[in-house]
Amino acid sequence: MYMKKPAAIPDDVLERVYQGNCTKEDALILLEGSPFELFELADALRANAVGDTVSYVTNQNIYITNKCAGNCGFCAYRTEKGYILSVEEILKKASEARKAGVAELCIQGGYIPEIDMEFYLEVIESLKANFPELCIHALSPMEVNYAAGISGISVKEALRKLKESGLDSLTGTSAEILSDRVRKIICPGKINTQQWIDTIKAAHKAGISTNATIMYGHVETIEERLDHIFTIREIQKETSGFTELIPMSFLPYNNRIGEKLLASGKFSSTGLEDLQLIAISRIILHTYINNIQATWVKLGKKLAQFALHCGANDLGGTLMEDQISTASGGNYGEYVSPAEFEWLIKSAGRTPMQRDTLYRKVEPVFPNRISPLPCFGKTKISSKE
């Protein structure tokens, strides 16, 4: 239990925080106070929830396509003349990933008329049949909605079929900021806030776990960030289906929204904002979601390591191939070895643990590998929309 009372935090706020009843007004008070007291409180809550264990997952991203019918203003990944992998090509990449010792296959891509629910089901079924020991973490609520529409079935039916095909976890992406005001600016072609919420709830009720994400640092307000996190908390109260929250800072390069921000003199979020969001997420979600990720590919390894003292308890994945962040100007690389994760975690005074998508402990396969196998080549893509 947290014993030392931060000097500037009112007693009633602390009491509500520890009971899991932090309000929006409490969160604003905490954000307006000393960041160090905010970090100290979040770190204490992290210790209460999960102890000193810091987890990470060995995973491979497989990009089905780099084409997309969307018009998101933050995307630098989509290209008009791109590729669509065949099931055989996807299986080949998965085989190479298994040889490298991954625990998770993360299947990503865009949404286009050429890819329907039947194709996704064939991909998931084939992967699960050939690699039953690997967690299949795939698709977003947007992709499910779009492919279900192409195939003429309901989202509920699509999720039931995905579960039966072997899908372990749906990604919580395409959330961005759960505010229709913001979504009309940055992703007007995507599902709206309520559709995202409904899809996530339907996935949880179908027995499919998801993570939750927030992409911040563009046109949203502080209150809209908080509203997003409270929305995640309300969903979790009802379904208990979220495994983690992944805060993702917006990368402003090579995309339409970023160009406008840079022209106005804004450069996404600051490092202090990044840490404050991780901390306030831990505080708001206390007793509801135990795992808060510090995303090294967005933050950089050193800031991600420091975030372990600000409420985070997970460093994400080894990410063999991260084409989306690098296309938007991310410059922290596309791979971190298990050995480096272990070093970063131990250097922060914590105990490392390899996990799978569902936060189950897994035994290391190649704990000392320091670079990805040569077979993990990149698919050439355009860095502009």
Outline type: globular
Write down the oligomeric state: single chain
Mean pLDDT: 89
Unreliable stretches covering 5 or more consecutive residues = 322-332, 367-385
Report the sheet-strand fraction: 5-15%
Count of distinct strands? 9
Spatial strand arrangement across the major sheet: 2-3-4-5-6-7
Can you characterise this structure?
The structure is a single chain. The chain is α/β, with parallel strands linked by helices and 385 residues long. It has one domain (23-355): Alpha-Beta Barrel (TIM Barrel), CATH 3.20.20. 44% of the residues lie in helices and 12% in strands. The protein has 16 helices and nine strands. The strands form two sheets. A six-stranded parallel beta sheet has the order 2-3-4-5-6-7, covered by helices on one side. Strand 6 (209-216), helix 10 (222-239) and strand 7 (242-249) form a beta-alpha-beta unit. Helix 4 runs parallel beside helix 5 (117-130), helix 5 (117-130) runs parallel beside helix 7 (155-165) and helix 6 (141-151) crosses helix 7 (155-165). The longest helix is centred in the middle third of the chain and has 18 residues, at 222-239. The radius of gyration is 20 Å and the shape is globular.
